[in-house]
Write a structure and sequence with these properties.
Layout: E1 11-23, E2 29-37, E3 41-46, E4 58-61, E5 69-78, E6 81-87, H1 91-104
Antiparallel strand pairs: 1-2, 1-4, 2-3, 3-6, 4-5, 5-6
């Protein structure tokens, strides 16, 4: 049994919710199913291979028009399932600043 690493309370969907993953630069797109979600992240089942895709940072599109989306970063991969962390505006800047401060110490 895998230990729960997510901080927030999770909502699990019986059949999953259809969604799409799309590269930040728009160069790739994959269909996926959102199996569960929390305030901080989600578990996705990806259709097709994720090999060669830039998953460091991407969009999870939750609507067919693309109006509902979350900016994500890859947390883990297990076969066709991936875990993602949701990024908030400014998250990348904060992480970069923390790394720079740690390097100075």
């Amino acid at each position: 049994m895998v230990a729960e690493r997510r901080k927030g309370e999770r909502v699990t969907f019986e059949r999953g919710i259809g969604a799409h993953m799309m590269g930040i630069d728009g160069t790739w797109r994959r269909e996926c199913t959102m199996d569960d979600v929390s305030e901080t992240g989600a578990k996705l089942t990806v259709e097709g291979s994720v090999e060669g895709l830039h998953l460091k940072e991407f969009f999870l599109l939750l609507s067919s028009t693309g109006l509902a989306y979350r900016r994500c970063e890859l947390a883990w991969v297990n076969g066709d399932q991936i875990g993602v962390n949701f990024l908030r505006t400014g998250d990348k800047k904060k992480k970069t600043m923390r790394r720079a401060q740690a390097a100075e110490a």
